Each structure stands twice: as structure tokens, then as C-alpha cells.
Amino acid sequence: MGVNALAADDQSDPKARLEALEAKLAEKRAVDEPTPHMDEHYSQAQHAWRMVIELVAGLAIGFGMGFGLDKLFGTAPFLMIVFTLLGFVAGIRTMMRTAKEMQKEAEAHAAAAETERD
Predict the structure, then answer these.
(1) Considering its fold, how many domains does the chain have in total?
(2) 29 and 39 part of one domain
(3) Which terminus of the chain has fewer CB atoms gathered within 10 Å of its CB, N or C?
(4) Same domain, 63 and 81
């Protein structure tokens, strides 16, 4: 758009100028937008690591508690096995809760995208 076109726009309808400006801005925004796929990739990786850490933490805490109680009470590996299994169950339950959170978040995001399209 040259100087002559700007001079011609100054005298035209303000509504038409506003629409032309909005069209130019939308074009620039479309070019400058980051790709959402990469954001989603990092988000999924973060969720995966969170779930792995939750499982390992449950196992480690259960093992530690069982080992400590075994030493305290002198009950060989009995409490260590029981508490390790309980830690595993707790880790799985926490992972399932995280998966439900992720599902609800994905559904809310999809619903928001659907209403945005309409």
C-alpha cells in the first residue's frame, strides 16, 4: 500500500478503513502464531513424566515405610512387601486421577474450540 492509497483511505468510509485494518492485523497474527502442535507435545510429555514420577514416588514411599517398620519391629520382609504393594496401589490410583484430570481438560479444551468455531 503506497502513500497515495493512504491518502485515498483518509477520505473513505471509516468503517471500511477499520475493516481493512482488521484484515491486515488478522493476516499478521496468522503468520506470527506459534504452532499449537508443539505446545501439545510438550504438555503431553509433562503429563507423562508426572505420572511416572507419581508411580515411582508411591513405590519408594511404600518401600521406605515397610523397610523402616520391618527394622523397628523385626518382621523380616513382611511389612516391606505389604507397604511396597500399598505404595504401588497408591501410585496407580494417583496416575488414574491424573489421567481423569487430563481427560476433563481435553474435553473442556475441545468444547471451547467447538464453541469458538460456531
Answers:
(1) 2
(2) no
(3) C
(4) yes
Torsion of CA 21, 26, 32, 36, to 10 degrees: 160
Q: Which of 64, 49, 54, 65 is nearest to 89 (CA)?
A: 54
What's the CA gap between 65 and 91, in Å, rounded? Answer: 15
Asked if the model's pLDDT at residue 8 lies above 60, the reply is: no
Lowest mean pLDDT of 22-26, 41-45, 52-56, 82-86, name the range. Answer: 41-45
| Band of residue 30 on the pLDDT scale cut at 50, 70, 90 | confident
The alpha carbon torsion through 34, 38, 43, 48 (nearest 10 deg) reads -170
Range(s) of the domain holding residue 57: 35-117
40 and 91 fall within a common domain: yes
C-alpha cell at 1: 500500500
Are 23 and 45 members of one domain?
Answer: no
Helix 36-73 to helix 78-117 angle (10° resolution) is 160
Mean pLDDT of 33-59: 80
CA distances from residue 31 to 10, 24, 26, 40, 77 in whole angstroms, order as listed: 27, 11, 9, 19, 63
